[in-house]
Amino acid sequence: MQDLNRLAAELRAGTINRFDFLRGAAALGLGAAAAASALDPFNALAVMAASANPNQTPAHFMKKAKYKIGFSQSELNNPWRVAESDSMAAEAKKRSARYTYIATVANSDTHKQVSDVGDMIASKCDLIVLTPREKDPLRAATAKALAAGVPVIEIDRTSAGKAATDYVTAIESNFIIQGQKVATWMAANTKGQINFVELRGTTGASPAIDRHNGFYSVISKQSRFHQLDSQDGNFTLANAKPIMTQWLTKYGSKIDMVYCHNDDMAIGAYQAMKQAGFTKKVYIGTIDGQKKAIQMVADGLFSVCVQSDPHFGPVTFDAIDMYFAGKPIPAHITVQDHTYTKANAASLVMTGF
Ligand code: GYE
Predict the structure, then answer these.
(1) 67-172+311-335 classified as CATH 3.40.50.2300
(2) Residue to mutate, 88, 131, 134, 156, ligand 1, most ligand atoms under 8 Å from C-beta
(3) Which atom of ligand 1 is least distant from the CA of 287?
(4) For the chain, which has fewer Cβ within 10 Å, the N-terminal or C-terminal residue?
């Protein structure tokens, strides 16, 4: 109990943060609730909730020569996710003097991703990088890590909960702005009545929610745009292509525009049109920035592509360095993305993946 009292004093003094406190309590065999009740009447959970931004606390008592980092990937079912995992692995290799690195893939199974994070906690990872497949269910994973005192950095997507409170930081693109950029391009560069279909990303994933809301925040104010249909294409070509084939049968040449939450689905929609012998010129707006898609913008096959840069390795490991150096980390780190149009795409193909 002496050790727990020392930790509590340090937490109160602000020389350690609540991740440190919970990790210290866990090392003593105590979970968060047990740590709190053992400290009664000093209620640790209340103090932790009221304590300053955990990222701003300078001291981290667990100094080590090498930290173990775990990366929980949701799935590798499209080129974007492969590029992201490759970027993380390459950066971990560059910094292998300071970090050991393990990675898991949840194979599109949200429950498996929650248990993957549990396994990383059990295998004594010092920090977990998480790309949460679905927003709400992955809250269980960050809660588990927080209770065990293991800091989590969320990259590319976010789970429910708050950056700098439930996890250290969120490193991601602004998905609302991405959707708005596609809609703004369509509003500025088309004329007359426009009927459109929307291929959405995985239901429950933060980019699917935000890219939908961002797009509609602009397009619903334009009375000449009409939605014919909208379906979940799971961010994959394989799911999106048959949906587009059905729409071509159902709506045919009524379709003027296709809005896709990612390039893989846009390429699937384009292939479906080609295979159906559909020759009408349809506007296609997409997000991600595969080299192939940027080239299709340059060739006039896609109208606009907004980048969502998957190269998270360097920025994530910079944040990890800062965390273990006890330096303040902003709650949100926003990735800056290009907008590719006919005017600039040919010269920017190399910025893709
Ligand atoms: O657009 C898509 C991937 O979470 C930002 O997920 C990411 C999205 C990306 O499967 O291609």
Answers:
(1) yes
(2) 156
(3) 1
(4) N
Instruction: Please identify, in words, the CATH class of the domain defined by 175-308.
Output: alpha beta
Instruction: Rounding to the nearest 10 degrees, give the CA dihedral for residues 309, 121, 97, 320.
Output: 40
Within 13 Å of residue 47, how many CA atoms lie on the same side as its CB? 25
Tell me the pTM.
Answer: 0.86
Count of residues making up the chain: 353
CATH 3.40.50.2300 spans which residues of the chain?
67-172+311-335, 175-308
Residue 114 has which token pair? 């929650």
Structure tokens at 250: 């159902």
- Judged by average pLDDT, the poorest of 16-30, 113-127, 154-168, 176-190 is 16-30
| CA 228, 230, 235, 237 torsion-angle sign | negative
Angle at 89 between CA 88 and CA 93, to 5 degrees: 115
The 10s digit of each residue's pLDDT in 304-315 is 999 999 999 999
| Residue 235 CA, closest ligand 1 atom number | 10
The H or E element spanning position 345 is helix 345-348
291 token code pair: 């080299």
Comparing CA positions, the residue from 104, 96, 160 lying closest to residue 129 is 104
251: confidence class by pLDDT, cuts 50, 70, 90: very high
Please compute the mean of the pLDDT values over residues 33-54 and round it to a whole number: 52
Q: Indicate the DSSP class of residue 311.
A: -
